[in-house]
Amino acid sequence: MALRTADEYREGLRDGRKVYILGKEVSDVTEDPYIKVGVETAAFDFLMGHDPELRDMAVMKDPETDEEISTYFELPYTPDCVGRRHELVKGSSNYADGALPFVKDVGTDIMNGLTAVARIMGNKTYEERVHAYRRHCAQKDLSMCGAVTDVKGDRSKSPSEQGSPDYYLRVVDRTDDGIVVSGAKAHITASAYTDEILVIPTRNLSEEEADYAVAFAIPMNTPGITQICRPSFRYEDRHHFPTPNPKRGHVEALVIFDNVHVPMERVFMLGEWQFSQYLAYAFAAFHRFTAVTYKIPILEYMTGLGMLAAEANGIEKASNIRESFISMIQYTETTKALAKAAIMDPEDFGGSGLYVANRLTANMAKLYFASNFHEFIRNIQDICGGILVTQPTYQDWQQEELRPYLEKYMGGAGAYDAEARLKLMSMLHHTVASDFGGWHEVCTVHAEGSFAAQKMMLAIEAPTEMYKNRAKEIVGLDT
Ligand SMILES: Cc1cc2nc3c(=O)[nH]c(=O)nc-3n(C[C@H](O)[C@H](O)[C@H](O)COP(=O)(O)OP(=O)(O)OC[C@H]3O[C@@H](n4cnc5c(N)ncnc54)[C@H](O)[C@@H]3O)c2cc1C
Q1: Is residue 477, in this structure, part of any structural domain at all?
Q2: 265 shares its domain with 119
Q3: pTM, entire model
Q4: Which residues line ligand 1 (CB under 6 A)?
């Protein structure tokens, strides 16, 4: 099958999946006013392959059949795959107006992690199953979400110590041809509008927790899956000034698995508790680099928005504001530089033959990005002034009686008349001071792993022995 069109992708979502939002069941996710924001953001993925300017980046030949498939499915067998992936993720994010389509990156990062771990385990069956699944998704041009994070209950306790056995997803039964799983995965991006879901464990497990060591992939409309979505903002955005394209973003869901049957050919880990944490780690090794890469276009346009706000208010030459510019530039460019540095030194993950961006640098990039985002936003908020949250809405602007007042009082500096200034501030409100702005801040802290996850990887990957040996040489110690 050829690469799908955006319409074919949308059509594929009308498959009887069980999705709720704001307490109501959704009959067609492509038409729900909130979920549609995500559907249309994801649809960009299916435009790229048909866009002559992007085809080289977005499309590759299947090495086994020579058919055209999405480049997201490339197995990173050589170091230069890492650089290509960087360009693909950054290019996708740029193309979708600064929001990654998010329906192939996380899924293929999980597939890469699964393949690497199956090889390291020496488990040919799993390796072949993952390979068959990758080819199935590539040939049908399917979209996928990745479900790693369990609901976790009491964070200080492991799955077997919890008050409820259901705080982590687990195998509850076995059948002749597969397994039955129950549990819930939290915060799952785009699950309401992907064709498939890939599930892996989120943490280390002990022997008596072997039922929790399970990885698999199934279609999103599999009986027993229920999704509860959280709205961010509506596709028809009536309060903000219109933009050339609707605003982009994603919807996350709590995905509940209530006695869900998984056919055995879709099971990629079953009981290997010794490898559960390593699988989560392998996925993170691939995905954290994706994370820092797709942020780059977002930081670039946010920096630009802050600079335009200064122009609109006539303060772009003031020393205090230039100080803020420097801080914003330093933040954006350091994040970019760290991401680029991670490409320059790729690694064969655990001797699996699959290449990842340098783990130490990629994690530093993510940690740096997440640790400094709020200060970056604070600078933009400072530049804008209180209008950021007190501005009249687009409905006011459209009101005959009110518009003359707004034209008279809301103008700014230079070419910024009232309309231009309000339009800009409206976008800034959406970006750094709305529900969505709050979502962005929390997303930065937690999505793709909270601070502790990156710090753990830094501790593992840092050349600590080299540091100590250097110091010993200088001190003259031979202990
Ligand atoms: C916008 C968004 C999108 C996301 N998309 C996805 C997705 O598509 N797929 C997916 O699988 N996940 C997704 N996530 C989940 C994300 O990976 C988690 O939010 C993150 O790993 C943190 O887990 P948590 O939210 O359960 O927070 P918690 O684990 O509750 O962490 C909260 C704090 O508690 C600390 N903590 C937790 N446990 C311990 C402990 N035992 N000891 C000491 N400190 C502890 C943490 O370090 C952190 O500081 C998404 C999250 C967000 C916000």
Answers
A1: no
A2: yes
A3: 0.96
A4: 106, 145-149, 152, 155-156, 187-189, 252, 442-443, 446-447, 449-450, 452
